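Team,

Forwarding the record for the chain on the shared tracking sheet. I've put the sequence and predicted structure together so nobody has to dig through attachments.
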Amino acid sequence: MAPSAAVSKRDDGPSTSEDFDLDKTAEEAKSLIEKVIRDVGKKSATRQLLFGSASGWATGFIMMKLGKAAAFTVGSGILALQLANSSGYIKINWDKLTRGVERVAEQVEDSTSDKKQGLLKKVRNIIETNSIMAAGFTGGFFLGVAYS
């Protein structure tokens, strides 16, 4: 005999890509970061310096690791394409490739030029209002770069 009551399945699992809103997540992260910076800016100079140094070190370390991985990936991809081209496996139209890259670079530059000015103003505001934390961040960033 089959049960007569229907089973209600409730899905509380992780959201799928259909439910994910990148803009909403970016806004939440941005507001969280601004809140943390405001809160730390009200703390003592020692805490500001420690927070700035730790976040700077982490940023520098991560940026160097990601930069090395990206450089290795791009470099090995170019090397593989060149080897395949010289061996005759593929034929690369370098002129067409160069034009395409230049077009994409122009589009990226156009889309980021407006955002760059707003970002620079925000960074300047953070540095002016939290100079101790900014100094710690700068020192920590260079230590993170050197450590990686």
